[in-house]
Prior knowledge:
By secondary structure, the protein is of the alpha+beta class. Helices cover 49% and strands 19% of the residues.
Amino acid sequence: MNPVWAQRREEVWNDCSVSPDVFTQMVHRLGEFVVPYQHALETEVSERHVHLYLQGLLSDLERKNAEKIATFVDVERQVIQDFIGTVPWDHRPLVTVLVGQVADRLGAPDGIIAFDPSSFPKRGTHSVGVKRQWCGHRGKVDNCQVGVFMGYVSHHDHVLLDFRLSLPEEWARDEQRRQACHVCNFPRQAAVLLTL
Length: 196
């Protein structure tokens, strides 16, 4: 590495270091912020796991995957893995809470709802909705997922409200593939609509 860049990198890194004391009040505010979302979850078990997951996300762990977070909060890896990805829970009540908070705190007469598609390059075939398709991120047809994002935008602020992954026709028709990735509650009518 170039010695000048190494020195500059060290300076930038030192500027980024923040004392944990700075975050004390923020953690308290985040704890209050999470309460309505916690109550929107369907089960007591899920409510309890929100705090464990947040502890891991706010920690100084280098990698914040299910295994590292579980070790950090001293629970079995599967507990966090299930909470993140496999335990069935409905996200819509959480979005309802978020929309209410955005309206109360950021709502403005000039506010609009904006929709924006975006793609995410992926390797392999097992991520939900992945296929060779137009990948705007790379500017060509490539292996990727496509999502549609809904945000609130006003003259003063903006915030992401919700998003959905696009499900290509071959995924809609392949029940076994969907079940393997936990996309199980997919009505047959939707598969027909996606093929029209």
